[in-house]
Amino acid sequence: MMPFGRVKIRVLLVLSSRPDPLCNSGVQLVWRSMGRCWCLVLIRIRLCGKKLLLNTIKVNVDGAIFAEEHKYGFGCVACGANGRLIEAISSSQLGIVGPEIAEVIGVKETLSWIKRKGWMEVEIETDALVVVQAVMGSIQMPSQFGFLVQDCRNLLSCINHVSLHFVKRSANRATYCVARASCYHSDRIFCEQDAPLELMSIVDVECL
């Protein structure tokens, strides 16, 4: 396995070798930032995270709140056991909600996405500890949060071999960037063929 220091140097070379056009809009700036953050975290996950079993899919999810725009959103990033990007999605909606609502909606939408895909052997990771504890618990809560938690439990019960885990925020930065970008790029789906160039450059380096 290549030492982290050498990988970091190669990452910087790939990024600096690409043209650095002037970004004239907030959207372009978001995507440039998202690409770099996303790619660097994928490298870190592969080098420092636990090795996934063959055919296992790892899905990271994160929620986001955009107070000034009165919106909230989420982002998901799915990678295979080999660390290659399978698919990433982002979505946002109008509304004013608390952080825990945005996070649990992200988990619910992720479970629905996995169900539609027909994926099995999936590990879902989120940095929202309260959501993981609530979904994996059995307490009934008569609130909006509680109803969404129950929706997550119901989805988990009808999908084979799907687990939900808490990870530190430092291990969820890629999806954080995707979630933040959902304010400008709602209802977007990306795969290896059309993902941001910065992302795919780093993924390609990782797979060498």
Automatic annotation (TrEMBL):
InterPro entries: RNase_H-like, RNase_H-like_dom_plant, RNaseH-like_sf, RNaseH_domain, RNaseH_sf. Residues 60-180 form the RNase H type-1 domain. GO terms for molecular function: nucleic acid binding; RNA-DNA hybrid ribonuclease activity. This is RNase H type-1 domain-containing protein.
